[in-house]
Amino acid sequence: MRLVQFFVPEKGKRFGVVKGSRIWDLTSEFPTTLDVLRQSLARSLTIPDVLEQPLRSVRKDKKNSYPLASFLQKPSSDDYHLLIPIDPPEIWGAGVTYKRSAVGRDTDSQTDIYSKVYFSERPELFFKATAERCSPPFGPIGLRSDSRFTAPEAEVAIVLGEGPDPVAYALCNDVSAWDIERENPLYLPQSKIFQWCCSFGPWLTTSDQVPDPSRISLSCRIWRGTSLLFEGRATTAQMNRSFQDLISFLYRNNPIPPGSILTTGTGIMMGEECALQDGDVVEIVSSTLGRLVNTARRLGR
Fold it and tell me: Which of 46, 108, 206, 255 is 20 to 30 A distant from 20 in Cα terms?
């Protein structure tokens, strides 16, 4: 199933399931995606099992649905738009999980710290964001006022339940100020955490719809006006660590609330000539997980 949270004028925030070209509104049963997940865990059922009967009921009347195309636009308080598909209690990140990422970062930093992480048993894990710092699909992504080289990081995000396996997946843009991190690795939090530093969506794809998480392909494009500035591709088959390995380390002595998100690193790197500028559009696409689009916005001091 594909789960969404969305905004309807005069009704506000809604929860629904995408089927074909329509969103079916299940808000009367489940106000938010987190409510569905909590029901799933409390009843020891999968999310699709929890939603099966309510979805069957609402699909008897097309008035309970909306055309998906109406929501694929810039967020506005007086128009239809998508919201982040879940309000995660916490958002964590993993780094140096792809070989290309490890090699690229080591070359740029002129140190061997990233290589050490790549070959070590322990992965790089860091706190990335809160829900309030996230931007919805088609919303803005932030460019720090003190950064000259902020870049998108196209990643697969996993939604955590209570066990070692993800309950859902989404595309994620782990926006990062690479120049700040390269200046000094201890500046990692400042390179990662700021307003609109993360976007994910456009929906959550439940785990039953992702038969082989180690074979998710994704691409990243940066558009400047009508010109394609950059295009890169990667697949989770290039990862050096499994999702379960990352989850296992994240959980060590660290209670993670269900519904939290872990971004799993990027395999798509770019040069400084592709540093984001105000107005650039970033498009992350996966045949498995959908299409996530955001526009870069320079933040004030």
Answer: 46
Residue-level pLDDT at 31: 97
HSE-CB at 33 with a 13 A cutoff on CA atoms is 29
User: Which are the contacts of 52, defined by CB distance < 8 A and separation ≥ 6?
Assistant: none
Q: What are phi and psi of 104, to 5 degrees?
A: -65, -45
- pLDDT value, residue 111: 54
Q: At what angle do helices 47-58 and 33-43 cross, to 10 degrees?
A: 120
Q: How many CA atoms lie within 13 Å of 277's alpha carbon, on the beta-carbon side?
A: 8
Between CA 207 and CA 200 the distance in angstroms is 16
Q: For residues 54 and 31, what is the distance between their CA atoms, to the nearest angstrom?
A: 13
Q: Among candidates 91, 61, 85, which has minimal Cα distance to 139?
A: 85
3-state secondary structure (DSSP) of residue 161: coil
> What's the token pair of residue 278?
């105000």
CB 229 within 8 A of CB 223: yes
- Written as one letter, the residue type at 204 is L
CA torsion through residues 183, 155, 247, 52, sign: positive
Are 1 and 51 within 8 A, CB to CB?
A: yes
Within 8 A by CB and 6+ apart from 28, the residues are none
Q: What is the DSSP letter of 239?
A: B
The pLDDT score that the predictor gives to residue 110 is 45
Regions in the chain scoring below 50 on pLDDT = 109-110
Handedness of CA 136, 214, 111, 273 (dihedral sign): negative
Phi, psi (deg, nearest 5) at residue 143: -115, 115
Query: Residue 116: its pLDDT value, please?
Result: 85
